[in-house]
Design goal:
The complex is a heterodimer. By secondary structure, chain A is of the alpha/beta class. Chain A contains 12 helices and 8 strands. Chain A has one domain: P-loop containing nucleotide triphosphate hydrolases (Rossmann fold, 3-Layer(aba) Sandwich). An 8-stranded mixed β-sheet of chain A has the order 3-4-2-5-1-6-7-8, with helices on both faces. In chain A, β3 and β4 form a beta hairpin. The longest helix of chain A is centred in the middle third of the chain and has 16 residues. Chain B has a two-stranded antiparallel sheet. A two-stranded antiparallel ribbon of chain B has the order 2-3. Chain B is elongated and about 55 Å long. The chains are: A alpha/beta, B alpha+beta. The interface between A and B is medium-sized, with 18 and 14 residues.
């Protein structure tokens, strides 16, 4: 059975593309056939985050307009068996595609035998958002523990439900454990209480994400990264397994580290 | 209060809980999708209707949307109105 999952957030810059890339790779590592679809037409980014920017020949708009076959536009990721990327067009705008065309595209991808189709939704609630959710079976909402991101997530959850995508799952991204412990950042319970949705995972703020994105190698395959571990857990949960939430307690600081800290100031 | 806290600045609530409280209020308004213009129109209409029966203090009138606990332990939006009465009008039966 194949499933189309849209990754959305409302607000920009909260980590939709990073999440899409990591979930796609994570699912492929576990043997699933995955298509990553960049629905952010005009602001294509999933290709660079994935490190596949040099291999684009055709894009999503080419497929929709019939300039090429679906298979021709799908870029095979050589590092992960079964992972493919359908890049967005960079020189067109969101109106180049209609929701009906996106629905047809998703059907086409299902027929190609993909287990999962992951759609990276653009920020905002306009045409691009409507296109991205048109063919989706379920939605994952990404937010960070900030007032602006949570407010937009709430709006997006309402719009998803109005479009028949009920019970979206939440990923709380870029949690700063140190700030939460000091009470200077909303915690997991605060956010889930406000948004009243189930939480799929919590990704700690991690510099490994910046480094991974710089290199075009998703952090999910970095065994040392805490964010990578969080993404691996989320992938397991998408596959229906129960995985306990990882402890987000700060690692105890050694005496030596404390001493170093004293001299730093 | 311990001895040292005497010297400290009076502590404000941590910003995390401030954020949560502010968000809750904002979302109540967002979710009912009621613009301040509509609220103003509602206010004018309420004044009009109530003034038929009683004289009210329009300056002190307070109408807002807030939320209350629902039966299933969720929250539902409520229209809250505080209307000070100056005097009753004589109404013909």
């Amino acid at each position: 059975m194949s499933e189309v999952i849209v990754i959305t957030s409302g607000k920009g810059g909260v980590g939709k593309t990073t999440t899409s890339a990591n979930l796609g790779c994570g699912l492929a590592v576990l043997g699933k056939k995955v298509a990553l679809v960049d629905a952010d037409i005009g602001l294509r980014n999933l290709d660079v985050v994935m490190g596949l920017e040099n291999r684009i020949v055709y894009d999503l708009v080419d497929v929709v307009e019939g300039n090429c076959r679906l298979k021709q536009a799908l870029i095979k990721d050589k590092r992960y068996d079964g992972l493919f990327l359908l890049p967005a067009a960079q020189t067109r705008d969101k109106d180049a595609v209609s929701p009906e065309q996106m629905q047809k595209l998703c059907e086409g991808l299902k027929e190609e035998g993909f287990d999962y189709v992951i759609i990276d939704c653009p920020a905002g609630i306009e045409q691009g958002f409507k296109n991205a959710i048109a063919g989706a079976d379920r939605a994952i909402v990404v937010t960070t523990p900030e007032v602006s991101a949570v407010r937009d997530a709430d709006r997006i959850i309402g719009l998803l439900e109005a479009n028949g995508l009920n019970d979206p799952m939440l990923i709380l991204n870029r949690l700063r454990t140190d700030l939460v412990q000091r009470g200077e950042m909303m915690n997991i319970d605060d956010v889930t209480e406000i948004l009243a949705v189930d939480i799929l995972g919590v990704v700690p703020d991690d510099e490994a994400i910046v480094i991974a994105t710089n290199k075009g190698e998703p952090a999910v395959s970095n065994q040392e990264s805490r964010a990578g571990q969080a993404y691996r857990n989320i992938v397991q949960r998408i596959l229906g397994q129960e995985v306990p939430f990882m402890s987000l307690e700060e690692q105890p600081v050694s005496f030596f580290e404390k001493l170093k800290g004293l001299f730093r100031h | 209060m311990d001895f040292f806290s005497f010297f400290k600045k009076k502590s404000a609530p941590p910003s995390g809980s401030v954020a949560k409280d502010r968000l809750k209020l904002v979302l109540v308004h967002d979710r009912v999708n009621c613009s301040s213009q509509v609220l103003e129109m509602l206010k004018t209409d309420i004044i009009k209707v109530i003034s038929n029966y009683m004289e009210i203090d329009e300056e002190e009138l307070d109408i807002q949307i807030s939320q209350t606990q629902s039966e299933d332990n969720g929250t539902v939006p409520v229209l809250y109105a505080n209307i000070p009465i100056k005097s009753m009008r004589k109404v013909q039966d």
